[in-house]
Amino acid sequence: MRKNDDSVIFTSYLNAKVMKTRSIEVVVPPPAPHYVGDGFRVHNFIPSGYHLDMHRMTPFIMMDYNSKFVFPPSPQPKGVGVHPHRGFETVTLAYKGKVAHHDSAGNSGVIGEGDVQWMTAASGILHKEYHEEEFSKTGGEFQMVQLWVNLPSKDKMSKPKYQGLRHADIGKFELPDHAGVIEVIAGQYEQVKGAASTFSPVHLQNAKLNKGGKADFNFPSHYNTALLLIEGSIKVNGTEAVETDHFVLFENDGEAFTIEALETAVVLVLSGEPINEPIAAQGPFVMNTRQEIVEAIDDYNQGKFGYLD
Amino acid sequence: MRLLIILLTIFLLTSCCCNYDEKDFDFTATHNKLLHPYTKGDTLSNNLMIENYKRFIKEKAGLAAEEIETLTASLQSKTFHKGDFLLHAGEVCAYAFFVEKGLLRSFTTDETGKEHIIQFGPENWFVTDRSSAYFHEASDFSIEAIEETTVVLIDAAFISRAASVYPSFMLSNEKALQNHIRQLQKRINLLLSATAEKRYLDFIRLYPDLTLRVPQWMIASYLGITPESLSRVRKELAKNNFKPHS
């Protein structure tokens, strides 16, 4: 027993010794926005951004960012009509405004400020996403992230699933010295575990930092790791200043990085173990082979994803 | 009366139709000349964006790489934004459009303002108005880009030149024309006699990925059914084919 304890202590000592700072590969400014449906005015970072293709960013294969935008009142809720997905998960994070969701598995829900919707499309689902009715009537500030997380080949045809994560249910780690709070959506920060269950190791966290607040992060160096600055301005690793709405991709050359808020900041932190499998992607389907894409289109056309009005 | 109008429309139909197995290539005009230089669209590139068209001729006419290069050296491509019109009804246009990338639709608008879609043109399809491009008459149809679309501009002089130099090109062109007529006959028959479900099943066979690229009302318009009927058909299909995970 004694020997084992020693070896644990020795290993963690060794880890602490070799922990290396992760350097910044690229800071990407928000690309020109485009509309998804009529309700989401988004900047696409993954996969079309410089350095941000699916293979580089796996398991994160798509990220659309609706930077803060004021939608005027609309009697008809704006959004995206019924469309299918297969082979991955869609994760929607609401920062401002409210989104309603309905899917062919019978799930529905509204997410508002701080809430997250984690939908596992897996073998196939139809869904639609709209501005929530009351929000639509009054209009107002709207800010969202939609992230697609790939599924390992063995899980692509598993049963669809829906996790609606309320802000109140998301684990929070209070940083020392009133630096702020880390909200752990998935994965782990210190002893706080994420609310969402995932199919491969994924960390997804909102760091809400007060002015001057600092937070340290560390993830295995081979995990693909990035930040999106939702609000405020920050300095990364004590050197690189990053402006609002910019995306930071880290190299895979170390584990640790720090964020310091130059003014009150909200930072989306993402890190995930790469899924090193072939990717065949077309429109709303992300599979491993071209043949599987053809099957997905066929199954969708034949009604095998179900029906949603 | 409605059937008669459909029938007449189809007989006047001047856009090509092809599918992934039976691609079509049906420009047989030999005496046409440019009616006016083409000025629509926002970019004009020379021979840079016509890779699909070159591959298409290679497959259909079996020409050698250098023959294709010589033949296509003078061809031009243009890129249109979503919502741009390549042709308005009432205009005359000397070109057939080969879709390199993107998606076109040709359609008519009736007296009530309702649109009737004659054809969708995704990658590797031709879209044109034959009364305009071949007979130099005002077009019955409008052609609109429903995605950002790059097209190769093909005029009758090009076809005529290619056919005179390469017999295999002429043969492939004739075959494509025959195929085009075959497809039109099928479409007339479907519009006259088939149920909404049969029309839809034929549509997803011909255009597998368009259900993901165009709104339902456009598909309904192409099929000559109401959006409600299309919705009912899709619901029925789902009822018969959807097997939820146990």
The number of distinct structural domains of chain A comes to 1
- The shape of chain B, in one word, is globular
- What's the number of extended β-strand segments of chain A? 26
Report the oligomer. heterodimer
CATH architecture of chain A: Sandwich
Portion in helices of chain A: 10-25%
* Terminal CA distance of chain B: 51 Å
Number of spatially distinct domains of chain B: 2
Which range does the strand content of chain A fall in? over 45%
- CATH domain fold name of chain A: Jelly Rolls
Mean pLDDT of chain B: 83
Order the strands across the largest sheet of chain A as they lie in space: 1-22-19-24-17-14-13
Characterization of this structure:
- Chain A is built from 4 helices and 26 strands.
- With 309 residues, chain A is mainly beta.
- Chain A has a single domain (24-301), classed as Sandwich (Jelly Rolls).
- Chain A has a 7-stranded antiparallel β-sheet with strand order 1-22-19-24-17-14-13, with no helix packed on it. A 7-stranded antiparallel β-sheet of chain A has the order 2-3-4-11-6-9-12. A 4-stranded antiparallel β-sheet of chain A has the order 5-10-7-8.
- Chain B is an alpha+beta fold.
- Chain B folds into 2 domains: 21-188, Jelly Rolls (Sandwich); 194-241.
- Chain B has 9 helices and 9 strands.
- In chain B, a hairpin with a 5-residue loop joins strand 5 (104-109) and strand 6 (115-121).
- The radius of gyration of chain B is 18 Å and the shape is globular.
- Classes of the chains: A mainly beta (309), B alpha+beta (246).
- The interface between A and B is medium-sized, with 23 and 20 residues.
Features:
heterodimer; A: 309 residues; mainly beta; seven-stranded antiparallel sheet; 47% strand; disordered N terminus; B: 246 residues; alpha+beta; Jelly Rolls; four-stranded antiparallel sheet; 9 helices; 9 strands
